[in-house]
Structure formats: structure tokens, C-alpha cells
Design goal:
The complex is a heterodimer of chains A (about 220) and B (about 325).
Chain A: H1 8-29, H2 33-57, H3 62-88, H4 101-122, H5 128-150, H6 154-176, H7 181-209
Helix pairs in contact in A: 1-2, 1-5, 2-3, 2-6, 3-7, 4-5, 5-6, 6-7
Chain B: H1 2-31, H2 41-51, H3 62-81, H4 90-94, H5 97-117, H6 121-152, H7 157-167, H8 173-189, H9 208-211, H10 217-242, H11 253-280, H12 289-311
The chains are: A mainly alpha (about 220), B mainly alpha (about 325).
Chain lengths: ~220, ~325
């Protein structure tokens, strides 16, 4: 089935899925933390749009609620909180030196191919939109992991973690028309708690090693040298 | 009849290019709280340059003198391939997008040779930078172009645009990526901020201006005009591939007039966006251009991937 035979809602959802993947790539290359958090909020917003359109076109009103929860948590609250931490710890002027950005980006591109390659045999019988959206959400998950590997700052790790959650959420939205409300509320609450806990961890890491660069933790020693 | 329209269209393209440059300058001046020169100023500049006697260094070879003519004519031939107001062109049918990229590379090759010819430090520096940038911009551009050619199953530009026009409004994820990739490549290839600053004239960071520093008189006029044509070429490419609505599909006078108005409107909006981005962003360091262009390549690659993953029939 070709894309020109799908209705405009499906085309729009696919385009939004592609844009969500694009924001993952931009996050990979971003060395400035404030901008990273902003792009994370943008990714959340694209997700909200996709969910709202899915709610409208599949006629599934409870997806509006999950869109609203995502909007409140991932577009407004968590970016606001991360931004406040960055400003408080005075990290907004730091530019993280990412080693070998081009190789990481090309690795990310191959992850997209890989996730498609993995899902293709499994989803033979499924509809085209399902296969595509699922493979892109798997790609977003893997790209989130790559973001956590390639960045050194703890805040970037948190953003990577949250974008993995974004990928899972998107997969749930398109494949099963959203998770059951109980599960969704539980996940949202977990994310909220995680965000608050991460904030506390930031303060602790910062006060003990005087930096949020986790690479410095490798140099911690039991005895003074 | 079609051939006549193709020639008319090319002449129209050549005569409108300085107007676009003037409009772009006008927008930039307005955004930066400066008093803008008249929209016709680029025409006056070109006219004035043609009246002046060209000064040629005694060390310059024949290549230096012949290069402006080659650059200008290669750019004009590249223009004939591009559908400006109508898609049904005999000239466009004879060449495809890869030939178009080839003509632009040909013009650049001679520009680079001319920069090296006189042997000044600036010329050589500009030439080497130009080649560095173009070696990274060209793959990205071809990647973006291939995305479009794969949906239309033809590398011919006018057939591809006709295909998009007839298909109506289809939201393709791959086109979003290809559009961004082509915009980034266009910025790099036409030497705009953040890759090169078109307004500077004696600075260590210049690229395009460094190569043509030795030119004067009508030679300079031809090179300037060619670079204005190149700017408009990329603008028309972006406008007509991704937003082809309004182009004349029949050859009636009203359709052609409407198409002319449409393309002028689209180019006007694109120029406003370019002026806005040039005002907001600073020029980046030369060694970061590589990151910029590899991002453009990545976008082109993602466009291609999402065409295969999301759109192709199975």
C-alpha cells in the first residue's frame, strides 16, 4: 500500500513520527544543555500532536487524556524543572564537547535501519502505518540510548531517558490505541517521581564531585592518591 | 511554441535574478534598522560595472579572462533545465537533475581555477575553501534530489514536478527531510550566513569574495550576476519542487501570468525567511561548516530512508 492511498490523518501521523525521529537526531548533536531541553520539549509537543490526531482519527476519546497528561508532564513540567536545575547549577553557558559527532550521527542513521530490519519480519501481516510507526518508535528508543552513551552530562542522560519513554509512549499510542488508563496514569506518575528524584540526584552529584560530568566519576577512588 | 516559451522563461529568469538580490538586501536592511537601497540597485551596479574598464593583472593567463564568460554561460544553461513558470519544457526534457548539479559543478570548477590563476594568497585560500565546502555539499544535495526522484520515479525535474502537481496534496515525511536538507545545502552553496558572509569584502573568513577579489569591470559584473542567478536557482528549486502549486500546466496567457505571480510570491517569502535567518544567526567558524553540511547529508539520508521505510509500496 502506498502512502498516497492513506488518508491525510495517517499521512500526518507518519510525518509527525518522522519529525519525532528528527528531533532525536538533533538532540544527539546538541552540546548546549538549554537547547537540548528545549528540543526535548519540542519532541514531547510533536508527540502530543500525534496522539491528539490519533485520538481524532481512530475515534478514541481516552487518547485525548493521555495527550493532555503528556502535554502537562513532558512539554511543560519536566523541561521547566530541568531548565531550572541548569540555571541553578550555572551550566547554561557550558558547551559539551562531543567527540566525533559525525560518527555518532551516522551510527544513529544505522540504528534507524536496524530497527526497521528487526521489526519487518515480525510485522509482516500488520498494516503499513503500524509497521512504520513502530519501527520509528523503536528507533527513537535506541537513539535515546545512544544519546545517553554519547553525552557526559547527567542532565543529558535524563533527557535521553525521558526520550526513551517518549518512544515507548508513541509505540503504545499507534499500536494498541494507547495503554489502559491505569497503566498510563501509573507510568505518568513514575515519570513524575523519576524527574523529582533526578533533581535530587543532580544536587548530590554536584555537591560531591563538583560537576555533573559523569565521566569524572570514573576517577573516584577509595584512597587519596 | 514550447521552445519559444523556454527561451522566454530563461530570459525572464536572468532578468529577475538581480531583483531577488535587491529584495533580499531590502529585507535585511529593514530587519537591521538600516536604510535600504532601492530594489533596482543590483541592476544599477551591474550596469555601472559593465561600463568600467576591467583591470587584469599582468600575471593573469587567458583562463582568468575567459572564466567569467564560462561561469555565466554554464549557470544560464543550468537555468534552462529548471521549470520556472511552466512544467512543459523541451529544454527541461533533455536534461535531468544530475546534469543540473554537473553544470553547477562545472561553473564552480572554473571559478576556483580563476581564483588560483593570479596567484594571490586570498584567491588560493578562497578556492581551497570553496572546494572543501562543495565536496561536502554536493553529496548532500544529490541525496535530497534522489529522495524526490525516487517518489516520482524519474530524475527529470520537469516530469518530477508534473508528478507532484498531479498527485495533489500528499504529506510525505521524506519531503520534509529533503526540504530541510536542500535549504541547508542552498545556504552553503550560495555562500550565505552562517557559512559565508556575502556582505564582507576584506576579511579572513570570506570564501566567495576571496576568489573574485581580482576581478573588476564587466568580468566582475558577469560573476556577480552568475551568483545572483545561482541564488535564484536554488530558491526556484526549493519553491517549485516542494510547493509547486500555481505553476502553469497549460500554455494559456492567464495561466502563465498567474504562475509568474505565484513564483514571485514564493521567492519573496523565501527571501524574507533567508533575511530573517541571516539576521538571527552569526557566521560559524570554518571548521564547523563540516558539521553543518554533514547534518544536511544526514537529513538527506533520513529522507531517503523514510521514503523507503514509510512510503514505498511492498
Amino acid at each position: 500500500m502506498d502512502i498516497e492511498n492513506l488518508d491525510h490523518y495517517a499521512q500526518l501521523i507518519l510525518s509527525l513520527a518522522a519529525l519525532v525521529t528528527l528531533t532525536s537526531f538533533i538532540m544527539l548533536a546538541q552540546g548546549r544543555l538549554l537547547r537540548l531541553v528545549f528540543i526535548f520539549a519540542l519532541q514531547g509537543f510533536l508527540l502530543v500532536l500525534a496522539t491528539a490526531i490519533a485520538a481524532y482519527s481512530f475515534n478514541n476519546p481516552h487518547l485525548y487524556i493521555s495527550a493532555a497528561i503528556t502535554m502537562a508532564l513532558k512539554v511543560l513540567f519536566i523541561p521547566w524543572m530541568l531548565r531550572r536545575h541548569i540555571l541553578k547549577l550555572e551550566m547554561h553557558r557550558d558547551v559539551e564537547a562531543l567527540s566525533n559527532k559525525t560518527a555518532i550521527m551516522m551510527g544513529g542513521a544505522s540504528l534507524v535501519v536496524f530497527s526497521y530490519y528487526v521489526l519487518h519480519p515480525i510485522m509482516q501481516d500488520a498494516s503499513m502505518i503500524l509497521l512504520n510507526a513502530l519501527s520509528l518508535s523503536l528507533a527513537v528508543i535506541l537513539l535515546g540510548m545512544l544519546l545517553m552513551i554519547s553525552h557526559h552530562q547527567a542532565i543529558a542522560h535524563v533527557v535521553g531517558f525521558m526520550s526513551i519513554e517518549n518512544g515507548l509512549f508513541f509505540a503504545a499510542t499507534v499500536s494498541t490505541n494507547g495503554m489502559p488508563m491505569v497503566v498510563e496514569l501509573g507510568v505518568a506518575f513514575d515519570v513524575l517521581v523519576a524527574a523529582v528524584l533526578f533533581g535530587i540526584f543532580f544536587l548530590h552529584i554536584n555537591s560531591s564531585i563538583d560537576s555533573l560530568d559523569v565521566d569524572k566519576m570514573n576517577r573516584l577512588n577509595e584512597v587519596d592518591q | 511554441m514550447n521552445l519559444l516559451i523556454a527561451i522566454m522563461q530563461t530570459l525572464l529568469f536572468i532578468s529577475l535574478a538581480p531583483l531577488l538580490a535587491g529584495w533580499l538586501k531590502w529585507c535585511k536592511c529593514y530587519l537591521q534598522n538600516r536604510k535600504a537601497p532601492s530594489l533596482l540597485q543590483p541592476y544599477r551596479d551591474l550596469l555601472k560595472l559593465t561600463h568600467k574598464q576591467p583591470v587584469v593583472s599582468k600575471d593573469a593567463s587567458w583562463l582568468f579572462i575567459i572564466a567569467p564568460y564560462i561561469i555565466f554561460s554554464a549557470t544560464v544553461i543550468a537555468i534552462t533545465v529548471i521549470p520556472l513558470i511552466t512544467v512543459d519544457l523541451p529544454t527541461a526534457a533533455s536534461a535531468d537533475m544530475i546534469v543540473l548539479v554537473g553544470f553547477l559543478a562545472f561553473a564552480r570548477f572554473f571559478l576556483v581555477l580563476a581564483g588560483l590563476d593570479v596567484g594571490t594568497a586570498f584567491g588560493g585560500m578562497g578556492s581551497s575553501r570553496e572546494m572543501t565546502i562543495s565536496s561536502m555539499a554536493e553529496p548532500a544535495m544529490l541525496m535530497a534530489v534522489f529522495t524526490i526522484t525516487m517518489t516520482a520515479s524519474t530524475t527529470n525535474l520537469s516530469f518530477a514536478i508534473e508528478h507532484i502537481l498531479q498527485e495533489g496534496l500528499v504529506l510525505r515525511p521524506s519531503y520534509i527531510f529533503a526540504l530541510f536538507a536542500l535549504i541547508l545545502v542552498a545556504i552553503a552553496e550560495t555562500g550565505r550566513i552562517p557559512v559565508d558572509n556575502p556582505a564582507t569584502h576584506l576579511e579572513l573568513t570570506m570564501i566567495h569574495e576571496a576568489m573574485i577579489l581580482e576581478y573588476s569591470g564587466r568580468h566582475l559584473a558577469l560573476i556577480e550576476w552568475a551568483s545572483q542567478l545561482k541564488l535564484m536557482l536554488y530558491g526556484v528549486l526549493i519553491a517549485n519542487i516542494f510547493f509547486p502549486w500555481g505553476m502553469a500546466e497549460t500554455l494559456s496567457l492567464s495561466a502563465l501570468g498567474y504562475a509568474l505571480l505565484a513564483i514571485m510570491g514564493k521567492l519573496g517569502v523565501l527571501a524574507i525567511l533567508l533575511a530573517l535567518s541571516e539576521t538571527l544567526f552569526a557566521k560559524m567558524r570554518l571548521f564547523r561548516v563540516q558539521e553543518f553540511l554533514s547534518f544536511a547529508y544526514l537529513l538527506g539520508l533520513l529522507g531517503m530512508l523514510s521514503h523507503i521505510i514509510l512510503e514505498a509500496s511492498r
